[in-house]
């Protein structure tokens, strides 16, 4: 599959490019800066210059699937969080739907839309993530919304725990990236929203438990 990854220069985005290539897909990395091209190419992807807050139709055209892994980072100001985490995600979803591309995988966050469940400093971030998720749910896209707990840089184990609402926990970015790729070609995972943390169940087996 030709897969566009928004936020390809981020920590999780780079892993998505790498793992998509290793799995035989054709990854395209959406980046904002010219000097980021070499990073994407070295990971096996094709760089695509675009700004999520502007027209991204040309970047999406011809893709089989789109992944949103961009993020302003919780330490940026509220305006940037709104521009990227909410409006950028919505803009990308709109472009994907308008072009008739069906599969869209959203990297969200645990407690998105329910900021009272998360840390106080993440309240605005979770609200914006939640609004983007709600928009996606109301499209015609075959979406999957992945809401991980705290992201770490530890080595992945490919063992996770999934559910509609989980206790707070952490998970390696590597396992999040592998899970996002796993849902791409599994119709049972379409139109699903789930939280995930590290666990004892292999990714594919854990995903089969989603109702």
Write the layout of secondary structure elements.
Elements: E1 2-6, H1 11-22, E2 26-31, H2 37-42, E3 46-49, H3 57-60, E4 65-68, H4 78-98, E5 103-107, H5 123-137, E6 142-148, E7 150-152, E8 159-163, E9 170-172, H6 173-182, E10 192-198, E11 201-202, H7 203-207
Parallel strand pairs: 1-2, 1-4, 2-3, 4-5, 5-6, 6-10, 7-9
Antiparallel strand pairs: 8-10, 8-11
Describe the protein's architecture and organization.
- Helices cover 35% and strands 24% of the residues.
- The protein is an alpha/beta fold and 211 residues long.
- Helix 5 (123-137) links the parallel strand 5 and strand 6.
- Helix 1 packs across helix 6 (173-182) and helix 4 runs parallel beside helix 5 (123-137).
- The mean pLDDT is 94.
List the defining traits of the structure above.
about 210 residues, about 25% strand, single chain, alpha/beta, 9-stranded mixed sheet
- Molecular shape: globular
Contiguous low-pLDDT stretches (5 residues minimum) are: none
- Number-wise, the strands total 11
Q: Could you describe the largest sheet, including whether it forms a barrel? A: 9 strands, mixed
SS class? alpha/beta
Distance between the termini: 26 Å
Helix content bin: 25-40%
Adjacency order of strands in the biggest sheet: 3-2-1-4-5-6-10-8-11
Short description:
The protein is of the alpha/beta class and 211 residues long. 35% of the residues lie in helices and 24% in strands.
């Amino acid at each position: 599959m030709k897969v566009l990854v928004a936020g390809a220069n981020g920590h999780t985005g780079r892993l998505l490019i790498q793992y998509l290539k290793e799995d035989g897909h054709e990854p395209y990395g959406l980046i904002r800066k010219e000097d980021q091209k070499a990073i994407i190419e070295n990971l096996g992807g094709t760089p695509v210059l675009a700004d999520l807050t502007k027209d991204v139709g040309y970047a999406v055209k011809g893709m089989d699937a789109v992944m949103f892994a961009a993020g302003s980072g919780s330490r940026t100001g509220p305006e940037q969080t709104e521009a990227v985490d909410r409006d950028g995600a919505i803009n990308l979803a709109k472009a994907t739907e308008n072009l008739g591309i069906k599969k869209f995988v959203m990297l969200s966050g645990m407690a998105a839309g329910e900021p009272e469940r998360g840390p106080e400093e993440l309240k605005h971030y979770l609200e914006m993530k939640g609004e983007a998720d709600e928009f996606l749910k109301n499209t015609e896209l075959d979406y999957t919304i992945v809401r991980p707990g705290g992201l770490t840089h530890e080595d992945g184990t490919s063992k996770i725990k999934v559910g509609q609402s989980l206790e707070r926990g952490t998970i390696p970015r590597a396992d999040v990236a592998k899970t996002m790729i796993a849902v791409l070609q599994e119709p049972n995972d379409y139109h699903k929203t789930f939280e995930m943390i590290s666990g004892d169940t292999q990714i594919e087996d854990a995903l089969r438990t989603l109702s």
